[in-house]
Amino acid sequence: MKRLKQNSGLWQYLKEQGLLDTSGEERKDATKAYRKLYLQNYKKEHKEITLQYGIAFKRDEAELINKAASKHRMKPSTYIRNATLAYTNQSFLLITPEAIYEILQLLRRYQTVIEDRERKVEKSWFGADRKYKELAEAVKEMRHQMEEAMLKPTLLLEAIKMAIANNPNFKAELNAILHQS
Q: Are residues 176 and 108 part of one domain?
């Protein structure tokens, strides 16, 4: 039979039962009983940590959710969870979050390459160090703006308020557009 680790729960259980040095049916039965008890405790702890909700949808609603989930490359349950959390956090679900993270990773890599080259360039080379610093800052700012735009875009109302604050003529233009329709 396999040798047990002394710090395992099974080893402790068999020691308490006095079956540590035995082998055969008694030990097998004790091992099965331990695994059953362990699984019960695990499920009980899991239920305490996670809450589960049951939701019923009409067929047309379920088809709509299935289409959206496949568009996002998720299972319907994962899509419902992510969409709910995104709505609650006032953020947005992206069609392909992997693509966004790849773009952000590329920007991070370019920023690192520029910073490495900046360190290697000699200071006497006609201001090249300043150009590298400016380039590194531009890439860093671009990465930050992309993270904000892709992962937490501004809400329409906030965008309108910012546009009115930045451009006093925007309010009149917006009113003209609204009165046209």
A: yes
Domain co-membership, 112 together with 81: no
CA separation, residue 11 to residues 4, 22, 23, 27, 29 (Å): 6, 12, 13, 11, 14
Same domain? For 64 and 139 the reply is no
> Are 74 and 145 contained in the same domain?
no
**CB of 108 closer than 8 Å to CB of 116:** no
Structural domain of 118: 94-180
pTM of the entire predicted model? 0.42
Q: What is the per-residue pLDDT across 129-177, written as a single tens digit (0 to 9) for each?
A: 566 677 777 777 877 777 776 666 667 777 788 888 888 888 888 888 8
